[in-house]
Amino acid sequence: MQHGRLRVTAENLANANSTANTPGGDPYRRKIAVFEPVEPGVEPVGRVVRDPSPFRVAFSPGHPAADANGNLKLPNVNPATEAAGLRAAVGAYEANLRVMGTLDELNRKTVDLLKI
């Protein structure tokens, strides 16, 4: 699950300054990883949705992707928001690793107790 969040966040950061290929066209639109529970005890199902927030606009009349008024649409990606999401995903991933390590240790101790 966290792998998906990391992948989407990395893609957003990589495209934070991408512009459209055509004048007045839309640039890269931020993606969001959404995880929905299916039922209790089952890992949530993930999907990727596009962020509907508006694009940033900059006045850049010389840019090839600028519209007739000289406005350039930029992706709706905020690097600070993405960095915070990245930290949260890494933290959740590390917490999952610690839980798995603890479960492994408990299993080993249980097996050791059963050997006696």
Structural key phrases:
116 residues; alpha+beta; two-stranded antiparallel sheet
Describe the overall structure:
With 116 residues, this protein is of the alpha+beta class. It contains two helices and four strands. The strands form two sheets. A two-stranded antiparallel sheet has the order 1-2. The longest helix is centred in the C-terminal third of the chain and has 37 residues, at 79-115. The radius of gyration is 22 Å and the shape is elongated. The two termini are 39 Å apart.
Write the SSE topology.
Elements: H1 2-14, E1 31-36, E2 45-50, E3 56-59, E4 71-74, H2 79-115
Antiparallel strand pairs: 1-2, 3-4
Helix pairs in contact: 1-2
How many runs of DSSP E, i.e. beta strands? 4
Instruction: Name the helix and strand elements from N-terminus to C-terminus, one letter apiece.
Output: HEEEEH
The portion of residues assigned to helices is 40-55%
- The structural class is alpha+beta
In the predicted model, the low-confidence regions spanning at least 5 consecutive residues are none
Mean pLDDT: 90
The spatial strand order of the largest sheet comes to 1-2
* Individual helix count: 2
What proportion strand? 15-25%
Could you give a short account of the major beta sheet? 2 strands, antiparallel
Distance between the termini: 39 Å
Shape: elongated
| Rg (C-alpha, Å) | 22 Å
Chain oligomer state: single chain
